[in-house]
Amino acid sequence: MLRMNVNARYKSLRTIAIACTVMAPWIATAHAEDSGPIKIGVIAPFTGSAAAYGAPAWQGTVLAAEQINAQGGLNGRQIELTQGDDACVPATGVTVAQRMINVDEVQILLGAVCSSVTLALMPLAEQNEVLLVNATSSNPKITYQAGVGGNIWTFRNLGSDETRARVTLEYAVKEKGRKKFGAIAVDNDFGRDAIKYVKKYMAEHPGVELVTEDYYALAETDFRPVLTNIQARGADGIIYFGVVGTTPILCTQMHELGMGADKSPLVGSVNVIPSTLEQCPETSLDGTVEAVSWLDSLDSADNQKFVAEYRARFNGETPDATAYDNWSTLFILRDAMKLAGSTDNRAVIKALEEGSFPSPLGDISFDDHHQSDIPMILLEVKGKERVQKGLFRAKITYE
User: How far is CA 210 from the centre of its chain?
Assistant: First the structure.
């Protein structure tokens, strides 16, 4: 159910270790828990097609580790980070993780950015009883396989593509009164799965229907036949899950056909970043609805504090969602260890399953599939502006 909350650049692989002298207080079976550093491996793409996400993911984790260690560490133990480049290739990610587990002796893996890599890491984490905490992969398959899905060693602190599909659909139906939708999605696992989940939740809304369903190849540049058909079928919204480069093409052709100005707005994963809005004709995306995991402009005191601290630490650079997601997730791990009174992985798993943890987006808890109940930020386009409509949560109904 939808509800609203009120309230590279690192050039070489390196490890950070900030000394702290406080011994871990937790006592188990009459002897003190290990007081050495807690080693965390950060797996992200620092090269390859998704390399732009690697540096922010690392930097967000570095900032969190520095702050946590300055405050006494994880139950008194220092954090030591190890960086690994998966290049967004599953086999490479597994090789990197094996080195981290067997050579670096990491206790926790934080990653990966690419869902295919995260899925490949899940069996390895389970086999070695290493905690795998994901903050940046959105494929729903991760959730379905975790927790009661079979793999207790994996958690995700990010809304999935299924969450985004439900949040945007319910906002368009309940808040905007849309009833008939066409669907346009990129022809890959991301696009097809997203439409599958839209149809799943559309069934919960009597009178709401999908009147067309089309998938496009990445090289496609002419959407006029598809748009004309959507227009002829009387759709008052277009469910859209596509890639960044397609949106300017689509909005221009919508404008040509008179489909802009809030007549048949796009709903889903639209990529309404500032550069996209600049390329689209005025009012062509009016009424467009998108859900994003995080924005640096989110008006929250804790969020603005994070942005300021990140800029101060990294030469004025503004963080992106990847940086925020890793930063906030490391603090959730810290709080889970506090709740557990232990840094043992099994104790941390139990704490994550049972606890509720503060964040700049509101309190975070995990369901029985180890998926976080985390809000997404709803954006609605007006002209060249993205208007924040608030933080919205949508729980997953598991199949």
Answer: 27
Q: Which residues pair with 304 in a beta bridge?
A: none
pLDDT value of position 16: 35
Q: Compute the distance between CA of residue 258 and CA of residue 348 in angstroms, rounded to an integer.
A: 55
| Residues comprising the chain, all counted | 399
Which residue segments constitute the domains of the chain, with CATH numbers given? Answer: 3-159+297-366 (3.40.50.2300), 162-292+377-393 (3.40.50.2300)
Q: Are 392 and 363 in contact (CB under 8 A)?
A: no
Which amino acid is present at 301? A
Determine if the peptide bond prior to 112 is cis (ω within 30°): yes
φ and ψ at 5, to 5 degrees? -95, 130
Strands (E), 125-231: 131-134, 154-156, 180-186, 209-210, 214-216
Instruction: Centre a 10 Å sphere on the Cβ of residue 389 and count the other Cβ atoms it contains.
Output: 15
Q: Could you report the per-residue pLDDT of 84-142, keeping only the tens digit for each?
A: 999 999 999 999 999 999 999 999 999 999 999 999 999 999 999 999 999 999 999 99
Write the pLDDT tens digit of every residue in 1-49: 444 443 333 333 333 333 332 333 332 332 345 779 999 999 999 999 8
Distance CA 122, CA 124 (A): 5
Tell me the residue type at 372.
S
Other C-beta atoms lying within 10 Å of the C-beta of residue 28: 11
Residue 30: DSSP 8-state: T
